[in-house]
Design brief:
seven-stranded mixed β-sheet, 29 strands, elongated, EC 6.1.1.18
């Protein structure tokens, strides 16, 4: 039982009630059942956290089952990507299963239904069947093949299995009720002919089972206690139960389907079909592009599994769909990275500063903390010299009193270094500033304990020593869509709402320690945001992806609209 006073979601209440009504804890088994026809996205992450979270709460096994019944779209590479993503999120499955493991058992059960007069082979075209389906207000029309003899149905179904018929020539349908109020019960298709190689069974089968026939029976074979689906499957529950009625043994546990609301994320799309379109049309550089809402894309961008799990916990499980602002996900990313990411100084739009009274050719190494949020992270040494880079936006010739960065005649502190004063600047023929000349106070070194070092100045800037700087490529990622709900517009395609500024590639400079960073390392470039080393990096060039800025700039932009 849950601890007293602990808040439960409605799915957990269902499990708790089942335990009160006679289930034992040993009866509990959950599953995460992705179709391997694409990469997992943030919506799947919530489902993963729900199912595996229940497994952790109740110390119950969770299966990872691939619903691989459509060889046209499914690939082994997707299977491997899904396994990587689930493991990266921090979960372990009890057994790895595939719907294709059960093809023979499903076929045998289908034969049993034919023998019992509960299934038949329909030889109509898909258009003819659709026309006979009826409407929510009018009953459907029975197929002219609905009353074929059992022997004829068995012979045709065997021929379908052996590959004797062309695709689309026959289907196997359950014989239920063409007047049922729930249109899914109007003789649903169980099998179709497909002459396609399967990623596991190759060409052993020429017929493939439909999702509704496969899913519940797979749950039953695996003895899954609670089959949790999103709300679009609510109408399928009646059919789920009807199919189970045909095969269940009273001595075995019967799975139950329950539904929860999908959580849609703003400024993105999560349809695999639409994500594949983005990949195939070159809008992004693959399923793991850091702008994609895929788990692999978020991993490459620098998100942490802890942040995604915290987001899923915050959003929770509900019975109604709603649109969750992506800024909530970004908040959890910032919150976690703030605790764990070491600080690094880097400059993305460099402006050269020459400290004229610092001795030429000299350098010194200064001490600075790795993470002010974590004392155990320790300190590091960074080089200081006569010539440094600062951000171009951190200098103005003239500015009002609210500008606390560097301006002519005024002072700022360089992070973990000295107080400097801007004395003059140099411009090119176009009037653009190319260099700032400053002086420094030699007695003002941070942490030295001198009176000068304790002097208060309002601005503190990050900087990089030019002779020691490591050149980097920095990919500044932003939201992929300008619209918060890009795939809900009736008058325009989601492809028309692509953010043209979702990626900006710049050349930056960072302190020398970054040369030792490896793929996947996360850092905070101080005052700029959180960044992650991209897999495209090499010994010759290190590439950083911007994970998220230090603040939610989109909220300000949208509030000013």
């Amino acid at each position: 039982m849950a601890e007293t006073g602990e808040s439960l979601n409605f799915i957990e209440h269902i499990v708790e009630e089942d335990l009160k009504q006679g289930y034992s804890r040993s009866d509990l088994r959950f599953r995460f059942p992705p179709e391997p026809n694409g990469y997992l996205h943030i919506g799947h992450a919530s489902s993963i956290c729900l199912n595996f979270g229940l497994g952790e709460r109740y110390n119950a096994p969770v299966n990872l089952r691939f619903d691989d019944t459509n060889p046209i779209k499914e690939e082994k590479s997707y299977v491997e990507a899904i396994k990587r993503d689930v493991e990266w999120l921090g979960f372990s499955w009890d057994t790895e299963r595939y719907a294709s493991d059960y093809f023979q058992q499903l076929y045998d059960w289908a034969v049993l239904l034919i023998k019992e007069g509960k299934a038949y082979v329909d030889s109509q075209s898909s258009e003819e069947m659709a026309a006979q389906k009826g409407t929510p207000y009018e009953p459907g029309t029975e197929s002219p093949y609905r009353n074929r003899s059992v022997d004829e149905n068995l012979e045709l179904f065997q021929g379908m299995k052996e590959g004797n018929f062309e695709e689309g020539s026959h289907v196997l349908r359950a014989k239920i009720d063409m007047a049922a109020q729930n249109m899914l019960m109007r003789d649903p298709i169980m099998y179709r002919v497909l002459h396609k190689a399967h990623h596991r069974t190759d060409t052993d089968w020429c017929i493939y089972p439909m999702y509704d026939w496969t899913h519940g029976e797979s749950d039953y074979i695996e003895q899954v206690s609670h089959s949790l689906c999103t709300l679009e499957f609510a109408m399928h529950r009646e059919l789920y139960d009807w199919f189970l009625d045909q095969v269940v043994d009273s001595g075995k546990l019967r799975p139950k389907q329950r539904e929860f609301a999908r959580r849609n994320l703003s400024h993105t799309v999560v349809s695999k079909r639409k994500l594949l379109q983005l990949v195939e049309q070159g809008v992004v550089d693959g399923w793991d592009d850091p702008r994609m809402p895929t788990i692999s894309g978020m991993r490459r961008r620098g998100y942490t599994p802890e942040a995604i799990r915290n987001f899923a916990d915050t959003v929770g499980i509900a019975k109604r769909e709603n649109l969750v602002d992506v800024s909530l996900l970004e908040f959890h990313v910032r919150e976690h990275l703030n605790k764990i990411a070491p600080r690094v100084m880097g400059v993305l739009d460099p402006l050269k500063v020459v400290i004229t009274n610092y001795p030429e050719g000299e350098e010194e190494w200064l001490e600075t903390e790795n993470n002010p949020e974590d004392e155990s992270a320790g300190t590091r040494r960074i080089p200081f010299s006569r010539e440094i880079y600062i951000e171009r936006a951190d200098f103005r010739e003239e500015a009002n009193r609210k500008y606390f960065r560097l301006k002519l005649g005024k002072e700022v502190r360089l992070k973990s270094a000295y107080i400097i004063k801007a004395e003059s600047c140099t411009k090119d023929a176009d009037g653009d500033i190319t260099e700032v000349q400053c002086t420094y106070d030699p007695k003002s070194k941070s942490g030295s304990g001198t009176e000068e070092s304790k002097r208060k100045v309002k601005g503190t800037l990050h900087w990089v020593s030019i002779p020691h700087a490591v050149e980097t490529e920095v990919r500044l990622y932003d939201r992929l869509f300008t619209d918060e709900s890009p795939d809900t517009h009736k008058d325009k395609s989601f492809m028309e709402l692509i953010n043209p500024d979702s990626l900006d590639v710049v050349k930056g400079y960072a302190e020398p320690g970054v040369a030792n960073a490896v793929v996947g390392d996360r850092v905070q470039f101080q005052r700029l945001g959180y960044f992650c080393v991209d897999p495209d990096s090499s010994e010759e060039k290190i590439i950083f992806n911007r994970t998220v800025g230090l603040r939610d700039t989109w909220a300000k932009l949208e509030n000013n609209k």
